[in-house]
Amino acid sequence: MRRLLALLCLAALPAAAQEATEVQTDLDGDGTIETWVMETDDAGGALLTVDGLDGIRVYRDVVWSGAMAGTTPSLDVAPNGSLQIVSQNEAIGRDRWRQVLTVAFRDGAYRVAGFSYDWYDTLNPDSRGLCDLNLLTGRGVVMDGDHEAEVDASVPALPLAQWTSDTFPGECLP
């Protein structure tokens, strides 16, 4: 009886599922809505897929992905129609962060046009900051605690196919 009860309890638990978010936008301006899907793959990485007029494109390792709530990436659409890829660590350890890549269609390619990164230390309220870069113009702002400075972006507006989770503008390091 106990064995049957244990099996029934295990069966009632939700199965491990891949996290996925989906948005639609006409990012390339061709009049056809593209469907963008972000999901975590079996290895724990992020997989971004776009289904548009010219078929399906897959981008691997664009952003970091964790395996639990508060660490999985998601998608959003900015008010101007640009795609936003959000990755974060809002769940583990004392160092919390959130990164937003803004993707726009420029010069015939999906490009990372903006990079925003904010961070804070859960045990030290004075340790916080923000970095917001427009990679199309090459300009941005960095705030570390109460200190704010304008900066030049060290990374250009790379095509999405060239951006990886390891791409990180040095001026944005906490």
Task: Explain briefly what this protein structure is.
Helices cover 6% and strands 49% of the residues.
Task: For the structure shown, list the relevant keywords.
seven-stranded antiparallel β-sheet, mainly beta, about 170 residues, four-stranded antiparallel β-sheet
Structure, described:
The protein is mainly β and 174 residues long. The protein has one domain. 6% of the residues lie in helices and 49% in strands. It is built from one helix and eleven strands; from the N terminus they run αβββββββββββ. The strands form two sheets. It has a seven-stranded antiparallel sheet, with no helix packed on it. β1 and β2 (34-40) form a beta hairpin. The longest helix is centred in the first third of the chain and has 11 residues, at 2-12. The radius of gyration is 19 Å and the shape is globular. Mean pLDDT is 87; it is low at 1-18.
Structural class: mainly beta
Count of DSSP strands? 11
Largest sheet: 7 strands, antiparallel
Number of domains: 1
Residue stretches low in confidence (pLDDT < 50, at least 5 long) are: 1-18
Number of helical segments with 4 or more residues:
1
In helices, the fraction of residues equals under 10%
What is the straight-line distance between the termini?
Answer: 56 Å
Enumerate the strands of the largest sheet in spatial order, edge to edge or round the barrel: 5-6-7-8-9-10-11
Order of helices and strands: HEEEEEEEEEEE
Mean pLDDT: 87
Percent of residues in beta strands? Answer: over 45%
Instruction: Give the CA-based shape.
Output: globular
